[in-house]
Amino acid sequence: MKKICMIAYTYYLSDPRVRREAEALIERGDEVTFICLRKDREKRFETINGVNVFRLPQKRYRGGGVLSYIRGYISFFISSFLKLNSLYLYKKYDVVHINNMPDFLVFITFIPKIFGAKVILDIHDLMPELYAAKFRVNISHPFIRLLFIMEKVSCRFSDYVITVNKLCWKRLILRSVKQEKCGILMNLPDEKIFKPIQPRADEPLAQTATQQHSSTSFNLIYHGTLVKRYGLDIAIKAVSLVKDKIPNIKFNIYGEGEILTELLNLVKKYGLEKQIYFSKEFFPLEQMPNFIAKADIGISPRRKDKITDVALSSKLLEYIAMGIPVVVSRTGLTNRYFNDSMAAFFEPGNEKDLADKVLYLYNNPKKRKELAESALKFFRKYNWQTEKQKYYRIIDKLLG
To answer: What average pLDDT does the structure give for the chain?
Structure first.
């Protein structure tokens, strides 16, 4: 049995990647501690599916100011440093697994590393590309250059670096880490939670779209963080373009984030209060399949930029895993893994094209079924059961 501590600037219950990794280690008999942020009404400590979760008294900052992000990261750095090292005194962890962002969070492991603990840095997002896109600055901007330096130093300090796909892996080994100490662990849905759903009894494919939806809603869904690069404003504008042609359309948005107020104002501007619902909060991972199962189409309306071209939406994969057809913007990595037989693609940033794809699928239930079935082929090659074994091998190799 290995003793492993995992740390992330996130909310544990609603973050699928960190939960999959932690619970995978519990499955094989390891002891896992997790240090994270704490929402209102959450307990400071509880054991969740075998994982001992310690929550620090801090919320996640999401906003437009770089200094506020830095303050949030530094505050978490200090509090997680103190918590990790107080626990290490009697736990003596074999491995400390740090999830970015930020990359420099890895340096809280300085004392355990001195005493022999192995350190993993799990890079979910490439920080230089992400912040260049977020603040709309050139990659040569001094702040972005500083992030490149921090990435390199953090990777070199770590014993092993994990990232989420081959494009990110290639960039990291070109600029920050040796190939032999960097691996890929894809961000894939847990098949135990996100399972294909059975066809709904109220949706026989023999009916026309008009007959089929005469007494039911036509439901679109998005769940995740509400930030500019994810294109929710584009999706809202698309709904405004089709609301008269799809009078029973509903767009359910589950999540929270820095542009929530902006999106609410946009809904009001277009008079879509009856068509668009906001949860205004994240939900525990286990609850999301219940919401997804009610959807007719999953929407992934990401803008095309430096970060979305090297990222594959985990939410998109959750829709596909449950057999929900998807409408997705044609960004770099999505286009590599999926083709037109597996998803309805639209031009990034083009609400008219998105609206056309939604209307087409509304009028063609057979096509929705074909897309959903074809997209499931992705999981024949890429699945969490396979990735989980890779994760075990990484841990075991580090510990000899």
So the answer is: 90
Specify the domain boundaries for CATH 3.40.50.2000 within the chain.
Answer: 3-188+383-398, 209-381
pLDDT at 9: 95
| Stretches in the chain below the pLDDT threshold 70 | 61-64, 198-215
Q: Of 2.60.40.1730, 3.30.420.10, 3.90.78.10, 3.40.50.2000, which CATH number belongs to 209-381?
A: 3.40.50.2000
**Residue 348 CB-density burial (10 A; 0-12 exposed, 13-18 middle, 19+ buried):** buried
Among candidate residues 225, 119, 107, the one with its CA nearest the CA of residue 162: 119
Residue pLDDT, tens place only, 313-371: 889 999 999 999 999 999 878 888 999 999 999 999 999 999 999 999 999 999 999 99
For residue 192, CA distances in Å to 49, 199, 384 come to: 13, 19, 10
Q: How far apart are CA 254 and CA 293, in angstroms?
A: 14
HSE-up of 125 (CA within 13 Å, CB side)?
19
Question: Can you tell me which residue has the tokens 């609400």?
Answer: 351
What's the CATH class of domain 3-188+383-398? alpha beta
Helix axes 16-27, 384-398, angle to 10 degrees: 70
What pLDDT does 357 receive?
A: 96
- CB-side neighbour CA atoms (13 Å) of 331: 25
| pLDDT recorded at residue 154 | 96
Rounded CA Rg of the chain:
22
Per-residue pLDDT, 212: 40
pLDDT for 287 equals 92
Question: Which residue type, as a one-letter code, is found at position 56?
Answer: L
Token pair for residue 267? 């809904």
Task: Report pLDDT for 208.
Answer: 36
DSSP string, 368-397: HHHHHHHHTTHHHHS-HHHHHHHHHHHHHH
Report whether 118 contacts 25 (CB < 8 A).
Answer: no
Backbone angles phi, psi at 214, to 5 degrees: -65, -30
| DSSP bridge partners of 56 | 37
Residue 230 vs residues 2, 63, 127, 274: alpha-carbon distances, Å: 38, 14, 16, 23
Residue 113 CB contacts under 8 Å (≥ 6 apart), including other chains: 96, 119, 157, 159
**Contact between residue 205 and residue 366 where contact means Cβ atoms under 8 Å apart:** yes
